[in-house]
């Protein structure tokens, strides 16, 4: 109808594909508030890591948001190079344990791997071969004695409350979207379980000039991340 109807103009399209980051959703909300939704068709997709990369390759999304680390870089970095994609770092952060505020470990200043052994680690399902390298959670190579996989953020939060589960993340959370019932506590590495740095950023087609809307979204991302950093979460 938009393409062939009389006196109709097609809407401009802007799409983002992202790992399950509340800061990405928050930034998207702020972007949409600044624009006329009657002129645009917006889409934000929380997806598996491979699908995010595929969306940017196929231009289903202008921007893809994910993280790189020393562990996943050899695999994901090679995939990005092979498909002429570029990674643009936004922020660098250490690992945090994300859990329900009623969790027995919630009051700890730091949480070690040994302290987590009696609780299930929650991980977003990736599927396929090499899924460890595409994990959204940092320290994916650790030998977790208990692990539960989920596909969406709401289920993950329910498992944190119902089962005392936890996940390992950047520590940058958005209470406005997730509420104040969940907290991020710094992970305490040791000799047997060393820490790792997450480099959170976005991918685009190589040498792509971002659209005006894409530039606004990146600025909103930077602003949201800077507020998280100011709160001591990264």
Structural description of this entry:
- With 234 residues, the chain is of the alpha/beta class.
- It is 30% helix and 28% strand.
- It has helices at residues 22-34, 49-57, 73-82, 113-116, 153-163, 175-178, 212-230, and strands at residues 12-18, 40-46, 63-68, 85-94, 96-100, 111-112, 121-124, 147-150, 166-169, 182-188, 197-205.
- Helix 1 links the parallel strand 1 (12-18) and strand 2.
- The chain is globular.
- The termini are far apart.
- The model is unreliable at 230-234 (pLDDT under 50).
Q: What is the CA–CA distance across the termini? A: 47 Å
Helical amount = 25-40%
> Which strands sit side by side, in order, in the main sheet?
2-1-3-11-4
Please state the oligomeric state of the protein chains shown: single chain
- Globally, the shape reads globular
Query: Based on helices, strands and strand pairing, what is the structural class?
Result: alpha/beta
Strand content: 25-35%
Question: Total strand count, please?
Answer: 11
Question: How big is the Rg?
Answer: 19 Å
The low-pLDDT segments are 230-234
- Element-level helix/strand string: EHEHEHEEEHEEHEHEEH
**What is the arithmetic mean of pLDDT?**
87
Number of helices: 7
Largest sheet: 5 strands, mixed
